[in-house]
Structures are given as C-alpha cells and as structure tokens.
Amino acid sequence: MSAKTVAIACDHAGFNLKSVLKQDLEDLGYTPLDLGTNGPESVDYPDFGQALGEAIADGRADMGVLVCGSGIGISIAANRNPAVRAAVVTNSLTAQLSRQHNDANVVCFGERLVGSEIARNAMKVFLETEFEGGRHARRVDKLSVTP
Questions:
Q1: What domains lie within the chain, and their CATH numbers?
Q2: Which of 46, 91, 107, 139 has a CA that sits 20 to 30 A from residue 82's CA?
C-alpha cells in the first residue's frame, strides 16, 4: 500500500466521477486530499484546477486527479502552475504513456466523455506507472519544474 497523498478536485460537471475516484484512492491505500467541489451546484473549474496545482507545488500532495465535463478546461487551469504536468487521458494506455513519457503528475478526466469504469482503471494505471526517464527526461525538464 502506498502512503502517497493524492489531491483530487472537480467542478460541478465532474462531481459524480470524482466521488467514485476518491473512494478508489482510499481503497488503493492512498490518502486523498479533497479540494472540492462538494456538490452539483455550478462552480468555475479554474478555481479547482488552481487549488490542485497549488497543492502539488507546495508539497501537500504528490499527485493529483481532476475531473470536469471534458477534462480539458480543468487541465489547462492546473497546467498554469509550473509544478504541474496535467494530462487529459481517455483510457489506460494514455494514462500509462502520460506517466512513462511525460512524467505527468496530474491525471484529468472528462466525466461527460469517459465512463466511470474506464476512468477507474486509467487512474489506477496512472498511479502505478513509473516515469521511464532516459530520452524523455530532457524533454520533461523543458516542460516545468518539479516541486
């Protein structure tokens, strides 16, 4: 079991999937840091992407999970923080490659686009996959800073 803290956040369009993924984090032995939102009432996704980015940057979380309607808006918000490498994934292969090749530290899902079982499996693969380094390391170094 891992002792890693994983931040998790969403907007209103990702609330249902976030609830499922948060429970999976606990079941997998991670400590979830829930940054909201906490219901289906309309909110602004940039606020939650920013909050998660700050949690990665200041060391409160090792990795993150974000959910909005498409996964795109909230990933853009998170990626504004130079400590974040957020990737929108649609299946376990894109989750694996985002870790192996890009050292992504935040996985993003679109609740309106990806079914919960696919997201659950992709999140597990994302969390369990290591960065390959090697030729990818110099490219990742050009993307952002590590906290």
A1: 5-143 (3.40.1400.10)
A2: 91
